[in-house]
Specification:
By secondary structure, the protein is mainly α. It has one domain. It has 9 helices and no strands.
Length: 216
Amino acid sequence: MRAFIRSNIGLKVIMAVTGLIMVGYLLTHVAANLLVFRGPELINGYSAMLHGQPAFLWTARIVLIVSLIAHVWSAIVLTRRERAARPVAYGKWQPQVSTFASRTMRWGGLLVLFFLIWHILQFTTGTVQPAPFVEGDPHGNVMRAFQIPWVVALYVVAMAAVGLHLFHGTWSAFRSLGLVKPSEHALRHRTSLIFAGFIWLGFTIIPLAIFAGLGR
């Protein structure tokens, strides 16, 4: 097992499994966040329900934290091995069968990681407060924060990075786990496009709609 985990295939499987765990969380998270358009009662009640079950909440948090650490660790090790295998860069490099999402996975992943830290500090702990933060009032916190143009711009850019990362990452995870057969159309990733598109649109529409005055 130790040899498998340290192998390139093992690391890719770890990345795939942990990535899909986080995709599953994002699907539930975006669905919950969209409750903001139904008024404060629903989303604040949902938040209170989660915080009223600390065992469940912290189990979910621990699973996500472990998944994130394992995902980042695997990515770092694989990147180092790739660079060690080719210490001299190509004299001329031209992509053949790849997407913009796949070519920006590493930098996009770093941007997503930094954004995740910012997001937790802003909306979970209230450590960073571009707008007044009130514990137990996620609806009000979101409404106040997304009245600030630079906060809205930050989230829109970050969600674009998340969408691109998910687009290639979800497809790559399915391939690493053997759930997707090789296709004659290598750039057509319909399933991952649906996943990534739903999550990207759901998260992006929230700051834009609130900034436009469409929130409740």
